[in-house]
Amino acid sequence: MKLLEEKIVKEGRTLGDHILKVDHFLNHQLDIDLLNAIGKAFKERFKEERITKILTAEVSGIAVAAITAQHFKVPVVFAKKTESLNLDKETFEGHVYSYTKEKHYKIRVSKNYLLPDDRVLIIDDFLAKGEAIKGLWEIVESAGAYLVGAGVVIEKYFQGGGNRLREKGLNVQALASITSLKNGQITFLENQ
Amino acid sequence: MKLLEEKIVKEGRTLGDHILKVDHFLNHQLDIDLLNAIGKAFKERFKEERITKILTAEVSGIAVAAITAQHFKVPVVFAKKTESLNLDKETFEGHVYSYTKEKHYKIRVSKNYLLPDDRVLIIDDFLAKGEAIKGLWEIVESAGAYLVGAGVVIEKYFQGGGNRLREKGLNVQALASITSLKNGQITFLENQ
Q1: Exposed, middle or buried: residue B104 (CB in 10 Å: 0-12, 13-18, 19+)?
Q2: Is B85 an 8 Å CB contact of chain A?
Q3: Cα–Cα distance between B149 and B57 in angstroms, integer?
Q4: Which pLDDT band holds residue B116 (cuts at 50, 70, 90)?
Q5: Which domain holds residue B36?
Q6: Is A37 a known ligand-binding residue?
Q7: What is the pLDDT of residues B51-105, one digit of tens each?
């Protein structure tokens, strides 16, 4: 997605060889026009799939999932990272390992909000090692629902998570795929 | 807002006399059509204000802020609860006390995303004792920006936070104001 790649080059910043900061438009300040263009692009890629629900994980997937859902005209469900009084007791659980925080944690969705006849699209802001999507996939499987695929705004292709998910049969669509952040240079996968 | 009150009565559930669960449409599963109607209602209430930025706090304010921002055609900034590698070092801070968790915590916004000439509208899902809005207000003041007001989807009017903020001069607009949750009965403030 050309517009997104241009935005990443113009406003993204690299921290070392692995971190790309895009908090100018994607996960601290939100550029709503860009999110709309992103939502439209996801719709284009999954338009034949009769999606019934969009699934994401808190925190930074929520805005892009909500705006994207307008293009599909379906509800969003976001998996929660913390147990709280307000979460139903009966939940589907997914297991996620955070490489940055070096710990395992659980994400949860109330059993009321994913049903066996749901056709689910996962939406997230970043895909690095694929842990969040793996955890969300586990939740969809526990619900007996059908996982249509995953749409991510930015794939850090060089971290390999996307291709591991594709090898397992998941349709993973990234709107920008980054092959390297070395020396402050952002390089994109061609022919996306 | 009649549509919202009807939704609360139909799909909300009370837990004791203080908690209203609306995770069916507002903070776990998201009803995107309803969020759009909510965004439109906020626009109507603040249309004369030349808003330049919408400010909210993670997690549950993000979806409603993002959808609302489409109606104002301005960016969203969401304050973060956790320090992370990806957050800028230079931040404005607000202090929040969580009555449910019985602890103080900080919320932060990068100094890049709030400027002195910003006219800020705070958007959040719930207003109970007003702590989150108080913390966000502190952030707006630290930035030297102008706080136009706060729009909340549901005010738990009986907890008094909204009126304490109004007494301090803030224009607080709630789309549904609840005066009591006693005995499982949801009662709304009239003439809203």
Answers
A1: exposed
A2: yes
A3: 15
A4: very high
A5: 2-188
A6: no
A7: 999 999 999 999 999 999 999 999 999 999 976 666 678 999 999 998 878 899 9
Q: Does A35 touch chain B (CB under 8 A)?
A: yes
**What was the ipTM of the complex prediction?**
0.94
Residues within 8 A of B (CB atoms), A 172-191 only: none
Residue among A29, A78, A86 minimizing CB distance to B21: A86
Minimal CA–CA distance to A26: which of A54, A52, A3? A3
Indicate which CATH number applies to the domain containing B52. 3.40.50.2020
For residue A110, give both structure tokens: 């109330």
Please count the other Cβ atoms lying within 10 Å of the Cβ belonging to residue B83.
11
A83 Cα to chain B: minimum distance (Å): 12
Query: Total structural domains in chain B?
Result: 1
Give CA–CA dist B74/B91, Å, rounded: 21
